[in-house]
Amino acid sequence: MLRGSISSICSINYPNLTLLDLSYNQFSGQLPKCWMSMPKLSILNLANNHLSGEVPQSLGPSDCLLLSLQLQSNKLFGELPSSLRNCKHLTMLDVGENQLTGNISPWIGTNLGMLKLLSLRDNEFYGTIPPEVCHLTQIQILDLSRNNISGRIPPCFNNFTFLVQQDITTPNMIPQTEFIVMRCENAFVYWKGQEKEYNKTLRLLKLIDLSNNRLVGNIPRQLSLLRGLISLNLSRNHLTGNIDSEIGQMNMLESLDLSRNQLSGEIPVGLAELSFLAVLDLSFNNLSGNIPSGTQLQGFNASVYAGNYGLCGPPLAACLAPDGLPSATDSKFDIGFYISTVLGYVLGFWGVIVTLVLNNSWKKLIFTFGTKSGTGFTGRPPP
């Protein structure tokens, strides 16, 4: 519950300070400009306050040693300072939920190649996603959601080496600086339909979120090569074309949201092969055809497919053939049920008859019982 300005830190010399965490308070006012007096600062966390103004150029001195910079959930505006390009050791840059603006600078990709987490979510960034972003080969969380980003998704996302790999490997020896970041990092991400805060398990998450922008064009087929990706959210854009038929390669995918675009064509069969898929939303597109059979896709609620008026098959209404009857694919279960029922009845009936014929004691017993009850097999009506 600490309040007031943080400018007082400029009155004290901190030559050996490596970590400064003032997050989750009620500090207000502008960011100070005396960061050059903290030459060894590695971790700066000012998230979740009421800080305003621009991010000062002094945050990125020529000898910048920052590993983690967290300014999310404040009231900062203006553009990211170009001096941050000097922070070549940054592994985490989170400035989400502010009022920052401008283009996504190409130097983010060319100069900050060590980034594992880049979050610009919920700001006012515009322009296109520069292809230089694909130089972030170590990236595991890329969140550009809730901005005004336009243009196409770069087709080079398969350069994200860490997201192409399926296995999560943990080195036997973790450098001290990396250990410090692991202990202090936390971020809010939109995961499985709701916003969640991750801290100690953040490094296990592999996520791309480009939702709520103005992206156009096809979904690049190279995205299907991200076999280690766990969550992909491209919802609420203006994407067109088909869902890539090779999406079944994304074996680790647990959450997929492509809703509220203008995607067309059929749902690829490979989508039914994603055994870890727990959250799916394809609603409000122009998808058509039969939903691929398999317990995976049929297990979702019908709302997952809402707004695609050309889609049919469980859990939606059955597909109709040109003659107006259920198609062969959709009626396969019903036909099988009826056939098995009839076969079961016939086999059961003849099983009883054969048993009676072969077993004389049963036959005599039933004949005697029928005679005594007045309905025996004598050919005569009862008295």
UniProtKB/TrEMBL annotation:
GO BP term (any one): defense response
Recorded topology in the membrane: Single-pass type I membrane protein
GO-annotated cellular components: plasma membrane
Signal peptide: none
UniProt keyword list: Cell membrane, Glycoprotein, Leucine-rich repeat, Membrane, Receptor, Repeat, Signal, Transmembrane, Transmembrane helix
Cited InterPro entries: Leu-rich_rpt, Leu-rich_rpt_typical-subtyp, LRR_dom_sf, RLP23-like
Top-level taxon in the UniProt lineage: Eukaryota
Family according to the record: Belongs to the RLP family.
Protein name: Receptor-like protein EIX2
Organism per entry: Sesamum alatum
